[in-house]
Amino acid sequence: MHIETLLRTIKKNYPKADLKLVRKAYSFAENLHKGQKRATGEEFIEHPMEVAKILAEHSLDLPTIIAGLLHDTIEDTQTSYDVIKNEFGEEIAQLVEGVTKISKLKITDWETRNAENVRKMIMASTKDIRVIFIRLADKLHNIRTINAFREEKRKRIAQAIIDVYAPIAYKLGISSIKNELENLAFEQLNPGEFNKLKRKVKKSIKQHEKEIEELKSELLPILQKEKIKIYKIFGRTKTIYSLYKKIQRKNCKFEDIFDLMALRIIAKSVKECYEIIGIIHNLWKPLPHRFKDFIAMPKSNMYQSLHTTVMVKGQPIEIQVRTEEMDKIAEDGIAAHWQYKGIFGAQEFDAKLSWLKQILEWQKELRDSKEFMEMLQVDFFEDEIHVFTPKGEVISLPKGSCVLDFAYAVHTNVGSTCTGARVNAKFVPLRTELKNGNQVEIITSKNQKPSREWLKFVKT
Predict the structure, then answer these.
(1) Are 140 and 54 in contact (CB under 8 A)?
(2) 3 state SS of 237
(3) Residue 76 among the catalytic residues
(4) In the CATH hierarchy, which fold is given to the domain comprising 3-189?
(5) Among the four 234, 254, 379, 422, which has the fewest Cβ within 10 Å?
(6) Which long-range contacts does 72-76 make (Cβ < 8 Å, 24+ apart)?
């Protein structure tokens, strides 16, 4: 890739950007990596160039893009933190050093190694989350070019991506990176199933596209009549990996998946999002319990949209309505805020990262890296919470569980004689709902007996 390609990509998001420092970073990295080759046989400089381009495509700021160009220089060349600091400033040097700390871990057991990597990433993110974006871009380009490695190594890398990096991308709301990571990793882990699903999607997609076009032709004239202007209207196809997971989760066949393709509408305002949904529900019968308002109640990763499923000629079709900014955030997650809001460092930005800080606290309680990774993975399932005993043991419970649920999970006798508890060292009643990361100490009494009243608030 030529440096001008990267510069054009940056200019799309930052038309007024001064690119002198980017050119300087490219020359600096190219000189340091001269003579180095990747496993693919290409010049090593191609990798940091691609990483920087991925960061630019996802609206990251110039210091992050420059750090992407330099991210392997401390680890793989003779340069140092001080040299980078002198040449490019402390901010960029700290970003490069943060990525270097992650990359330096060399442990044979991949599960432990990746747990340590995630720990480093999370610790770095409390200081500067941009380290995580660089690492994700690094992993994405690595798996794009993974075929140069032997099968065993490919599968090991792919498993780490499925277990660790794709879920982190999801938590940060970067669906475009998450989806590509998952698809490429799944192709390595289960090529037979991947190719089978890919063929089925290709075979059935034309019919779905026809249905979407018919929907558009019926809906657009009504929107025009109501003087509702939209930015875009298009079909969105599920990824191969998400299809596979849905088939596994529902224990169904490919033919039973009705939302292979959805209609996505990009509206000009939040008000018009709701107006469009009203028109859609007047046109076609909505399926009960399939309307979801993620605008009023955004997901934890900032995702916002209106979802509905309607019956069209006897077929259920999913429709998503959102604004242009919501669509950008759905694709780029927190990264979109550098372009849209300039939010980096703001109070709202820190609030969005509360999950990272919470996990950092959990990490202190856990005994080893493997347990930490398991803890991190299960948190990505929104129907469970994970709390601690005073000894640091992890107890998993359904979301909405209270102190009494915890007591019975420890032991039946503990539950039956429970009179109260300390949650994070504070006394609370039995019906107190628990949250992720709570430390719970149960108080019991020999005189206590189970009560019918307990059935009104226990979850399990």
Answers:
(1) yes
(2) strand
(3) yes
(4) Hypothetical protein af1432 (1.10.3210)
(5) 234
(6) 72/29, 72/33, 72/44, 72/47, 72/48, 72/103, 73/28, 73/29, 73/32, 73/33, 74/100, 75/100, 75/103, 75/104, 76/33, 76/36, 76/44
The type of residue at 310 is V
Amino acid at 180: E
Give me the catalytic one of 30, 46, 75, 325: 75
Domain 383-460, what architecture?
Roll (3.10)
Alpha-helical (H) ranges within 130-239 are 130-144, 151-160, 166-171, 175-189, 191-225
Report phi then psi at 290, rounded to 5: -105, 0
Nearest residue to 388 (alpha-carbon basis) of 404, 408, 365: 365
| Segments making up each domain of the chain, as ranges | 3-189, 192-334, 383-460
Tokens 């054009």 sit on residue: 8
* CATH number, span 192-334: 3.30.460.10
H or E element at residue 74 = helix 73-76
* Identity of the residue numbered 403: V
Query: Catalytic: which of 30, 43, 46, 76?
Result: 76
Of 123-137, 267-281, 435-449, which one has max mean pLDDT? 267-281
- The pTM (predicted TM-score) of the whole model is 0.70
Q: Are strands 315-323 and 306-312 parallel, antiparallel or unpaired?
A: antiparallel
> Is 75 labeled as catalytic in the residue annotation?
yes
Nearest CA-CA partner of 359 in 374, 344, 348: 374
CA 188 to CA 210: how far, in whole Å? 32
pLDDT, tens digit (0-9, with 9 covering 90-100), for 359-368: 445 444 554 5
Pick the range with the lowest mean pLDDT from 36-45, 104-113, 335-344: 104-113
Instruction: Classify burial at 118, counting beta carbons within 10 Å of its beta carbon; exposed 0-12, middle 13-18, buried 19 or more.
Output: buried
HSE-up (13 A, CA, CB side) for residue 272: 16
pLDDT band at 206 (very low <50, low <70, confident <90, very high): confident
Cα 115 to Cα 163, 193, 326: the distances in Å are 10, 28, 32
Give the Cα separation of 254 and 198 in Å (integer). 11
